[in-house]
From TrEMBL:
<comment type="similarity">
    <text>Belongs to the tetrahydrofolate dehydrogenase/cyclohydrolase family.</text>
</comment>
<dbReference type="InterPro" id="IPR020631">
    <property type="entry name" value="THF_DH/CycHdrlase_NAD-bd_dom"/>
</dbReference>
<dbReference type="GO" id="GO:0009086">
    <property type="term" value="P:methionine biosynthetic process"/>
</dbReference>
<dbReference type="Pfam" id="PF00763">
    <property type="entry name" value="THF_DHG_CYH"/>
</dbReference>
<dbReference type="Pfam" id="PF02882">
    <property type="entry name" value="THF_DHG_CYH_C"/>
</dbReference>
<dbReference type="GO" id="GO:0004477">
    <property type="term" value="F:methenyltetrahydrofolate cyclohydrolase activity"/>
</dbReference>
<comment type="pathway">
    <text>One-carbon metabolism; tetrahydrofolate interconversion.</text>
</comment>
<dbReference type="InterPro" id="IPR020630">
    <property type="entry name" value="THF_DH/CycHdrlase_cat_dom"/>
</dbReference>
<keyword id="KW-0511">Multifunctional enzyme</keyword>
<dbReference type="InterPro" id="IPR020867">
    <property type="entry name" value="THF_DH/CycHdrlase_CS"/>
</dbReference>
<keyword id="KW-0560">Oxidoreductase</keyword>
<feature type="binding site">
    <location>
        <begin position="170"/>
        <end position="172"/>
    </location>
    <ligand>
        <name>NADP(+)</name>
    </ligand>
</feature>
<comment type="function">
    <text>Catalyzes the oxidation of 5,10-methylenetetrahydrofolate to 5,10-methenyltetrahydrofolate and then the hydrolysis of 5,10-methenyltetrahydrofolate to 10-formyltetrahydrofolate.</text>
</comment>
<dbReference type="InterPro" id="IPR036291">
    <property type="entry name" value="NAD(P)-bd_dom_sf"/>
</dbReference>
<keyword id="KW-0378">Hydrolase</keyword>
<comment type="subunit">
    <text>Homodimer.</text>
</comment>
<dbReference type="GO" id="GO:0000105">
    <property type="term" value="P:L-histidine biosynthetic process"/>
</dbReference>
Amino acid sequence: MTQPTLIDGKAIAATVRDEIGRRASELLASTGKRPGLAVVLVGEDPASEVYVRSKDRTANELGFHSVKHTLPASTGESHLLELIGTLNDDPDIHGILVQLPLPSHIDESKVLRLIKPEKDVDGFHPVNVGLLTSGEKDHALIPCTPHGSLILLKRTLGSDLSGLNAVVVGRSNIVGKPMASLLLQESCTVTVAHSRTKDLPDVIRAADIVVAAVGRPEMIRGDWIKRGATVIDVGINRLPAPEKGEGKTRLVGDVAFRECQSHVGAITPVPGGVGPMTIVMLMANTLTAARRQLGFPEDKPIF
Ligand SMILES: NC(=O)C1=CN([C@@H]2O[C@H](COP(=O)(O)OP(=O)(O)OC[C@H]3O[C@@H](n4cnc5c(N)ncnc54)[C@H](OP(=O)(O)O)[C@@H]3O)[C@@H](O)[C@H]2O)C=CC1
Ligand SMILES: Nc1nc(=O)c2c([nH]1)NC[C@@H]1CN(c3ccc(C(=O)N[C@@H](CCC(=O)O)C(=O)O)cc3)C=[N+]21
Ligand SMILES: [Mg+2]
């Protein structure tokens, strides 16, 4: 029995981050400008605060200009829209990220549509979604988590994924749908599964590549996965871990990791898999956005 390849997202993210750092220094040398990122957090979701802190820290490490706007959960929609307008007009801000989910009294899609597409470093604006799905992804900003997941797949399997059967479990706008678009563009045969999918285990058994983005702890079992398949576990689920002490928690993915050990080809751990890639791809998008706004409009995304 051979051990599967552990896809080390943390290590791969570090190499991507180094490359971003080099390119950001070049940009600074030639224009005197640093990429600028604004992160907007509405309300006090502890999980969101972890990610926002991590984004802020990575941006600072890379020498980016980084600002964080933390607004109370009671913030009115018009106030948030006003802030987006200000950030849209700020020449030092090249990327805007509004942390999701937003409180229910705010219309998420209205907020995302107001962000200038060229500053939309999450890739959620309809213009970026359209560019990605119509095969013009070199002109788009691509959602960070699926893009990071694709890089992990290519580092593991090589750059040619054509003809592979890929099953994406989950169809959200943040992960599942853009992941499916990216894999289709790599000429995979793509199946998107969701809560109404019949016979999910059998659908997954046909997959050479499984991308799990469900949000249900360890829902995908080891015996659903074909021998030798590559598994990208996007899920981040925080479970109580009383064995670590009172009030402690641990993170698990959407895939039963241990059950996969005996037969999968390669698998991402949680934590240390997709999560760190999401953060660096946000920095990559911010750099791409800055380069375009500072007069390198023909530039392709750097990753
Ligand atoms: N590592 C990272 O950087 C990131 C991690 N995440 C994590 O990824 C996971 C998914 O996030 P997100 O896409 O936002 O989640 P959503 O809740 O928006 O979407 C979940 C999807 O899973 C589907 N689903 C739910 N239950 C089942 C089921 N029993 N069988 C099959 N499909 C099911 C839903 O189907 P339906 O559409 O029919 O309801 C839906 O399409 C979460 O754990 C989240 O924390 C998210 C973003 C970034
Ligand atoms: N507008 C918007 N864009 C997002 O990209 C976005 C969002 N809203 N809302 C929430 C989700 C979730 N998300 C994660 C980012 C990093 C880790 C990450 O770094 N995870 C570490 C562990 C971190 C920990 O210990 O909690 C890891 O997996 O190793 C996880 C999840 C981005 N999201
Ligand atoms: Mg969601």
